[in-house]
Amino acid sequence: MEFEAVIGLEIHVELNCATKLFCDCPNRPGDEPNLNTCPTCLWYPGAVPRLSRDALEKASLLCLGLGAELQPVSAFDQKVYYYPDLPKGFQLSQAHCPLSRGGGIDIMDETGKPKRLRIHHIHMEEDVARLVHEMEGRLPISLVDFNRAGAPLVEIVTEPDFRSPHDAMEFLKALRTQVRYVGSSECSMENGTMRVDANISIRPRGTDQMNTKVEVKNMNSIRHVGDAIAFEIGRQSAAVKAGEAVVLHTRLWDPDKKATFMMRAKFEGPCVPDPKVPVIELTAEYIEAMRSRLPEMPAARAERFIAQHGLTGEEAVFLSSDPEVAVYFEALIAEGVAPRTAMHWLTTQLIPAIRERGQKPGDTPVTPARFAGLLKMMSKDEINANAAREVMAHLFESDESPEAIVAARGFAQVSDSAELDSLIDKVLEDQPDAVAKVRAGQNKALGFLMGQVMQASGGKANPKIVRELLAKKLGTN
Fold first, then answer.
1. Can you point out the beta strands (E) in 308-458?
2. Adjacent-strand bridge partners of 448
C-alpha cells in the first residue's frame, strides 16, 4: 500500500515589540535571568494585565501581510496546563476567538507547479518562561528564567494542506520573507524568534481520511523541519505496515541523530474565557488604517522588478526576498546604475561580502551612493572588474570615496593603446607556443595570452582593448 502524508504547521512568531504583551517589562529574553519581571508577568495576586497596543498593531500587520482577514471581535482565553514555566498555571491565548482567519501563501511544488497553502487562523498569545536544566553535580536541577514569560507572540495555524517536506520548507521561507517585510518580527529560527511545530499523519494515497497525527517539536532551522517531517513519514509508514497503531503524542527532533524521539503524551487541558483581559473590538477604520500601512509585498515587488527593470523571474524573486536587499537595489538604480549591472554586482559581489562580515544591507558602510560611484567608474572604463572588486573591499575598511581609493592606490585602468602595445608584444615574444596555438585555431590559447597580459599589467589593463589588440596582432579578427 502506498501512503501519502497529511501535514499541518503551527508557527510561533515573536513580535519585535519593546515591551511584553500585558505589561511594561522590556521584551528582552536574553538579558540576565529574571531581570525583566514585574507582578503582572510573575502573576502576583491582584495583578491586572493590560494589552499592548504596539503588539496588537504588529500582529494585525502580520495577519494582513499573510492575506488573512482581521476579525472584528477577538478575545483571550485561559489555556490551562500545569508546568514550571507557566507562573499562573495557564497561558493567555486566543483559543476560541482568534485575531484573524484565512490567508495563505503560494509556493511552487516539487514539479514546478503553483500551489496554495492555506492558513486556518492566526492568534495572539503570551510566551512562557524558559527552563534551564543543570545536569551536572550530584543532584540535577531545573531553574526558571521568567524574562521570556509574557513576551508577545502570534501563532500561525495552517490547514493540513502540506504533503511533503518540500511544501513545509517553501512555506516557511515565504512566510519568513513576508513577515519581515511588514516589520513585525525578525523571524529567526536560530535566535528563537520563530519556532515551528509540525503535525504529521499518513493515509492511503487517494483517500481523504484524516488519521491520528503526531506532533514534532524542537526544530530550530527550516532544514530541520524538512528532515524531521521526512523521518516521521518514514517512521509512521513502517509502523502501519508492521500492524502497529499510530498513537497521538508529541515527539522531539534530534538533529545529530536525525531522528524523532517520544517526548510525552499529547495533553489538552481546559480552555476558558479570561475575565481580566477585555474583548478586542476592531473597527473598520482601524482595519483600513492597518491595511494602508502595509508595504509593497514580495510578490508584487518581484512583478514590478520584471516589468520596470527587465529582470528575469528568478532574479526578481531573489532581489525581492529580502526587503533590505530590494531597497538597496532600487537605491543603486536611483543613483544612475543600470539595472542589470546593479543586479549582477549586488547579488554576486556585495551581498556575499556583507554577509561574510556579519552585516546587513541596511547598516553596511558600503552605502548605495558609494557602491554606485564604484559601478559607474567601471561602466566608464575608468577601472576594470578586477580592480572594482579590490576597491569594494577597501570601501568596507575606509570612509573614502571610490574615486579617492582608486587614485590613492593606483587602481585606474590602463586604456592607452601605445602602453598596452608594448606589454602585448613582450607577452607574445615570451609565449611562442601559445601564439602558434592561436594561429592554429585553438581559441583557449587566446584566453591564456589575455591572462598573461593582464598579469603583466598588474590587473590594470582594459580587457576590451587588450582583446582587440591581440586579435589584430594575431590576425584572428
1. none
2. none
CA 140, 143, 146 angle in degrees (round to 5)? 170
pTM higher than 0.70: yes
Q: Supply angle C-alpha 193, 128, 31, rounded to 5.
A: 60
Helix, strand, or coil (residue 23): coil
Q: Are 68 and 101 in contact (CB under 8 A)?
A: yes
Task: Dump pLDDT digits (tens) for 1-48.
Answer: 789 999 999 999 999 999 999 999 999 988 999 999 999 999 998 899
Segment 360-393, tens digit of pLDDT: 998 999 999 999 999 999 888 888 888 899 899 9
Q: Identify any residues that bridge with 159 across adjacent strands, giving them in sequence order.
A: none
Q: 326 vs 314, 330, 338, 359, CA distance in Å?
A: 14, 6, 15, 16
Annotated domain spans of the chain: 3-286, 296-409, 417-474
Does the 417-474 domain belong in CATH 1.10.10.410?
yes
Q: What is the largest CA-CA distance in the chain?
A: 94
CA distance 311 to 402: 27
